[in-house]
From TrEMBL:
Protein name, per record: DUF4429 domain-containing protein
Domain of life where this protein originates: Bacteria
InterPro entries with a match to the protein in the record: DUF4429, SHOCT
Positions of the SHOCT domain: 253-280
Pfam families (UniProt xref): DUF4429, SHOCT
UniProt organism field: Streptomyces fumanus
Residue intervals of the DUF4429 domain: 12-106, 139-227
Amino acid sequence: MGDVLAGSHAAWEFGSDSVLIRYERGLRTPRLFQALGERRIPVEAIAGVTLAPGRRGTVVLQLQPRAGADPLMEAAAGQLKESCDPYRLVLPAEREPLAGYWADELRGQLPEAGAGPAERHLVAAPEPPLQFKAYDAKASFDGTSVSFRWFWTGASSAKWKAGDQTFPVTGLSGVEWRSPEVTEGYLRLQRRDGSAAGVPVDQDPACVVFGLGYGAVHESLPFAAAVLAAVRAAGDAAVPVAAVRRDPADIAERIRHLGELHQAGLVTDEEFSVKKAELLAEL
């Protein structure tokens, strides 16, 4: 193996133990593919291979990843559109014989009994640092912790009162991603202690919500996959996190906005006093 099969938006290079997928960067290429750049899929991460007729004189070569082998597909949970499936290669119909040859070559390397769920991620996740803008916050991931910095124009009063959030991956058990292409898209961090279970997404400080132009698939899904991979890699290890001191100007702005919420009757006297003291303590 070692040959290249070029199709719509991608080229697949077949190696002895993996398939290297390089995605194009053209205007018509799905933005998710452009964000991924390239991905190496080990043969051990593949559960099956299909070759079927496509639309308008094309054929489609497709890989089925093993459950749990790819953090991107695990985070996507079946929500990707067919055109954005990174395991799908569309080819002109005249290339069907060559595509069939490589499909047979790959099938020959798969276990005869089929492959069950993977015990660990076999496909590399996008590398941090990563960040994107949701409707109510800017989300950042540095490889060890996830941070949400709330936008006062979009965050609910509950999230604003809770303040900016930082979650070490060692305190997380998983990630829940809902595509922004459906209603109520969001990225929710699942915490090991089970706190905030059942809390609405717009009230949960471990969740950012998407909106028109915020939390696009090509930004939020790779982010979710990277966090999920880090959570799995961290296992049960616990790493103490040093307290982060805030910018005084940022603290002043938050106290000002907290005062506006208080005047509007959205925050009680007691809540205002407690939260103000917490903010001042961060100086």
